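Attaching the record inline, Q. Sequence:
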Amino acid sequence: MKGVSPLIAMAIDSPEAIKHLVSSGLGLSALPERVVQGELRSGSLASIEVEGLRMERRLGLIIRSERYISATARAFLGVMDEVMEVGLPPRLLQREEGTRGPER
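Structure, as predicted:
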């Protein structure tokens, strides 16, 4: 971060706890806008835009292990793999034995 080393005093997983701490004057945070919409409308919290700041969020994809994956889910995974280049394991993209439908 261009010569900035923030001092992180604590890490909290609860958005509600984070909002409470920030509204109490105990720091600042970066939260998804949808999480703070009500507080922004009521004025208890304020947002600031920082020119040139780009934030990304890592997401994970979870599925139930050892379970049949429907053709619709498999098609969605195929789009993610092709368009978003997420690098899914081949077993998630292969048609299962005994199922109907077009192969990839």
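The radius of gyration is 21 Å. The mean pLDDT is 81.

More tomorrow.
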